[in-house]
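Hypothesis: this fold can be encoded by more than one sequence.
Test: take the structure tokens below, design a sequence, compare later.
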């Protein structure tokens, strides 16, 4: 049960540190929800009839869910990148150690 709480917090911490280190990603993370909401509200607002409620009340929760899904994909891609980097670093360490051993024999 503790891992159910601590693991997402660790992933969120990593993502926030990554956003702080790369301002381009921070700007993209902040502007893309605004752009999507503006696009769906003003460009497609009259094209999709929603019976019983205004279109804005329908699209805002959908945009929130969409942004959460995008955030999940971004976190998964970040984790995959970290796993690949760790694997490559392990291979590099093994190759470096082998090279040092062979150099010492000379």
């Amino acid at each position: 049960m503790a891992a159910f709480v601590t693991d997402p917090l660790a992933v969120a911490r990593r993502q926030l540190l990554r956003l702080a280190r790369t301002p381009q990603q921070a700007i993209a993370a902040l502007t893309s929800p605004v752009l999507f909401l503006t696009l769906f509200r003003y460009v497609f607002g009259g094209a999709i009839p929603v019976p019983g409620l205004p279109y804005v009340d329908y699209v805002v929760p959908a945009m929130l869910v969409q942004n959460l899904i995008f955030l999940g994909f971004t976190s998964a891609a970040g984790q995959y990148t970290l796993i690949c980097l760790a694997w490559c670093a392990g291979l590099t360490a093994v190759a470096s150690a082998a090279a040092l051993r062979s150099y010492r024999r000379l």
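The chain has three helices and no strands. Residues 55-105 form the longest helix (51 residues).
Hypothesis status: open.
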